[in-house]
Amino acid sequence: MRRYVLADWRIFGVDGRPEAIKNFASYSLQRLGVEVIDLYQPCRADPNVPYEESIGAIADLIKEGKVRHLGVSEVGADLLRRAVRISFQCWG
Hints:
By secondary structure, the chain is mainly alpha-helical. It has 4 helices and 2 strands; from the N terminus they run ααβαβα. The protein has helices at 9-12, 18-32, 51-63, 77-91; strands at 37-40, 67-70. A two-stranded parallel ribbon has the order 1-2. The longest helix is centred in the N-terminal third of the chain and has 15 residues, at 18-32. The radius of gyration is 14 Å and the shape is globular.
């Protein structure tokens, strides 16, 4: 029987700092034993970090070939537009 553990984000918080995102991604690559993460999607926006910085860190990971696709979650129209603007800079 498999057990699932749900983390309460209010206790553990969200860390959207670019250096933290890059560290989390590197750790995930190592732990999963893969060379690239297909989809990197933060669970929510960190209210203490400008959204462009968090999304920009994932865009950097895409440019480095460590991540294939960027996803967003729990964002409104404004944050979605900002994420799209940053992600287009990745390819353009």
